[in-house]
Amino acid sequence: MAQPPILTLDGVTLGFGPNALFTDLSLSVSPGERLCLVGRNGAGKSTLLKIVAGLVEPDAGTRFARPGAAIAYLPQEPDFAGYATLGDFAAADLPAQERWRAEMAMDGLQVKAEAPPETASGGERRRAALARCLAGEPDLLLLDEPTNHLDIACIEYLEETLAAAQSAYILISHDRRFLSRLSRATLWLDRGECRRVSRGFEGFEDWRDKTLEEERAARHKLDRLIKAEARWAVEGISARRTRNQGRVRRLAELREGRAAQIAETGRAAMALSAGAASGKLVIEAVGIAKHFGERTILRPFSTRIGRGNRVALVGPNGAGKTTLLNMLTGLLEPDEGRVRLGSNLVIARFDQNRAALDPEKSLWETLTEGDLRGPKERSDQVMVRGRPQHVVGYLKSFLFDEGQARGPVSALSGGERARLLLAKIMARESNLLVLDEPTNDLDIETLDLLQELLADYEGTALLVSHDRDFLDRVATSVIALEGDGAAVEYAGGWSDYRSQRGEGPAAAKPEKPAPKAEPRHVAAEKPAGKKLGFKETHRLSVLPAEMERLSAEIAKLEDFLADPQLFSREPKKFAKATEALAERRAALEAAEEEWLELEERREAAGG
Predict the structure, then answer these.
(1) CATH class belonging to 281-500
(2) Could you check whether 7-207 and 281-500 share the same CATH topology?
(3) Domain regions of the chain by residue span
(4) What 3-state class would DSSP assign to 230?
(5) Cβ partners under 8 Å of residue 312, min gap 6
(6) Cα distances (angstroms) measured from residue 246 to each of 251, 330, 540
(7) 495-500 contacts: CB < 8 A, separation 24 or more?
(8) Nearby residues of 397 by Cβ (< 8 Å), 6 or more positions away
(9) Residue 17 CA to chain centroid, in angstroms?
C-alpha cells in the first residue's frame, strides 16, 4: 500500500505581479524519493527549499507536512548559539546513547568535534551542520549545495551515505557527478514554474534541451502567425469595406498570448581573451618545498608548465593546494628550491574567498575600480579587453539587472558573487588564469559556459576544484597533493589520475567541450518561389474561414469538457469529446502551418 507523501505544497505563490518568484506552484515528496532541484541562479531554488522546510511563508498556497515527519534542512549559515563545540551541535538531535551516529558523520566529513564554533571556519561550521542532518536519519533531507567546502574524499563519503540512506531527499548542487549518481527524478525550477521530470539528472539535460527547443519553435511559429495576421489586418482595409471581426479578435488573442509568454533565461555572455601570447615556458618549479613550523606542507617538487596547459591541483582540504598555487604564481616564496615565471605573463586571479570583492562597494564601483578611465564623465564606462563599455550593459551580459548595479556586493547570492568576480577578471586580457574553487555556487549552465571558454582559451590555466566532472572536462594534467607533503603530477583529468593510481577504471569521461559553431536560423530565411497557382490562391482564401471554424469547435469542446462531473456521469461522451478535441487541435495546427507557408510564398513572390 502506497504511503502518504511526507510533504506537499499546493498552489504556492511568492511575490505578486510580474516579479513573482513562483506562481501556483505545487509539488509533493513521497517516502524514499531521491530528487534534485535544478535551475538557473536566481530562479529561486534556495527559497523554494526554505518553503519546503517551513522557514519561509508563501504569500499564497499551502504547505502540509505529514504529522510526526522529521525534516532536516542544511542552512547556509548555521546558528551555533548555545553550543560549546562543533560536536555538541552535530549531536544535538540525538539521545546520548546514539551520539555515535554524529561521531561517524563527523569523521566522514572531517569535522573536528572538539573545535569551538567561534574559531571554526565557515566550511567547518557548514560540515558540522551537514553531519547533524545525516546523523538524525530524518524522513526528508533538504540539502542546499552540500558539496561546497567538501574535498573529493568527503564528497564521495557523502555520496555513499546518501546512496544507502532510507531518507527521502531534495538536493541542490552544481556537481553533475554527484547529482547523476544520487537523483532518480528532477524538479526543474524555470521561470516561476516547477516541472517534475521522472528521470534523474543524468537524463535531465537532454530532456531540458529538447523541451527548450520545442518552446523556441512554438514561439517562432506564433510570431509568424502574428506577423501574417497583422499584415492581413492592414491590407484588408483596402481590400474590403468591413474587416472580418473574427480574424481581428484572433490577432488580439495571439498578441495577448505572446505577451504572456516568459522567454527562457539567456546565457551569461562571458568571454575570455588571452591577449598577447606568453612565452612557451610559463612556469618552471625546481625542488620547491614549504614548511609551516614543524608541519611539512610540500616536499621538494618540480614541474614545467607550458603555454596552453590547464593544470588542476587536487587533494584533501588542508593539503596545501592554495599554498602550492601561490608559490607557482609568485605570491609566496618557497622555503627551498626556486620558481621561474615565463616572459610576458599577464595573470588574472579568481580566489576561493572572493577577497577581490569588497562587500561594502556597489557592483558599479567594483567593475570601474582601478580602470584607467579618462575624465569624470566616463566613470560609467568599464574597459572590457581594451574597449570602453557601459557598466550596466556589461553587467547585463553577466545576467545582472539594472537595479543591482548600484546595490552592494553584500546583497548578492554566492552564485552572483562568483559571476561578478568572473566579470571583473574577464574584463581584462590575461594569458595566465589562476582559478581557486571557481565552481562553487555557479549554476550548471554558467559552469558549462566556463568550461567552453577554458577549452578555447589560448592562454594557460591553473585551477583548484573538487568538481570531478569539471576536472575531467577541463584539465590536461593533475598535480595531486595527498596530505603528507608529497605532490605527484599525472596526465589527464580526475578519472585519468584515479586510473593511473589503480583506484578504478577511467570510466565514461565527459568529452572536453569543443568550439561551437553559431547555429543558423533557417526559419528566418524567406522562401524563394514563384507566384501561387489558382488552386493555391483559392486554398489561401478559404483557409482563414476553416481556421475560424476549427477554433470555434475547439472552444465549444473545451467548454463541454470543463464540467468536472462529466467523466463520472457520461464516460462515453467524455471519451468521444476528448477524441474530437484532439482531432480538431491537430487539424487547426495543420491548417495554420499550411496558411503560413502559402502566405510567405505569396509575399516572397510579390503577390
Answers:
(1) alpha beta
(2) yes
(3) 7-207, 281-500, 526-607
(4) helix
(5) 463, 464, 465, 471, 474, 475, 477, 478, 479, 493, 494
(6) 9, 74, 17
(7) 495/468, 497/314
(8) 268, 269, 270, 423
(9) 25
Do the strands 22-29 and 7-14 form a parallel or antiparallel pair, or are they unpaired? antiparallel
| Exposure letters 445-472 (e unless 16+ CB within 10 A, then b) | bbbbbbbbbbeebebbbbbbbbbbbbbb
For residues 404 and 299, give the distance between their C-alpha atoms in angstroms, rounded to a whole number.
47
Q: 310 has which bridge partners?
A: 461
Distance CA 267, CA 304 (A): 36
Question: In CATH, what number does 526-607 get?
Answer: 1.10.287
Cell numbers at 60, concatenated? 499564497
Please give the helix or strand (H or E) that residue 426 lies within, else none.
helix 414-426
CA distances from 152 to 122, 201, 434, 498 (A): 18, 20, 20, 12
For residues 281 and 431, what is the distance between their CA atoms, to the nearest angstrom? 12
Tell me which residue has cell 585551477.
463
Task: Copy the grid coordinates of residue 273.
Answer: 581573451
The enclosing H or E element of 258 equals helix 245-260
Looking at domain 7-207, its CATH superfamily turns out to be P-loop containing nucleotide triphosphate hydrolases (3.40.50.300)
Judged on CB neighbours under 10 Å (0-12, 13-18, 19+), 599 is buried
Strands 432-436 and 381-384: unpaired
Instruction: Decide: 22 and 44 in contact? Cβ < 8 Å.
Output: yes
Residue 567 grid coordinates: 467523466
The secondary element (H helix, E strand) that includes residue 169 is: strand 168-172
Give the Cα separation of 482 and 122 in Å (integer).
Answer: 23
Dump the DSSP string for 260-301. H--PPPPPP-------S---SEEEEEEEEEEEETTEEEEEEE
Give every CB contact of residue 25 below 8 A, 6+ residues apart in sequence. Answer: 9, 11, 12, 13, 48, 61, 192, 193, 194
35-82 per-position pLDDT tens digit:
999 988 778 898 999 999 999 999 999 999 999 999 999 987 888 999
Whose grid coordinates read 556586493? 409
State the residue for C-alpha cell 546558528: 79
For residue range 229-258, list pLDDT tens digits in order. 666 555 554 444 444 555 555 556 655 655
CB neighbour list of residue 423: distance below 8 Å, 6 or more residues apart: 270, 367, 394, 395, 397, 398
Q: Give 138-195 pLDDT, tens digit per residue.
A: 999 999 999 988 889 899 999 999 999 999 999 999 899 999 999 999 999 887 788 8
What is the Cα–Cα distance from 217 to 221, expressed in whole angstroms? 6
Residues 449, 443: Cα–Cα separation, whole Å: 10
Q: Could you tell me how many residues make up the chain? A: 607
281-292/295-306 β-pairing: antiparallel
Say which residue, 325 or 503, is predicted with more confidence: 325
- Tracing cell 553577466 back to the chain, one arrives at 398
Please say if the pLDDT value at position 569 is more than 90: no
DSSP state of 375: S
Q: How is 510-578 classified by DSSP, letter by letter? A: PPPP-PPPPPP-GGGSPPP-----HHHHHHHHHHHHHHHHHHHHHHHHHHHHT-TTHHHH-HHHHHHHH
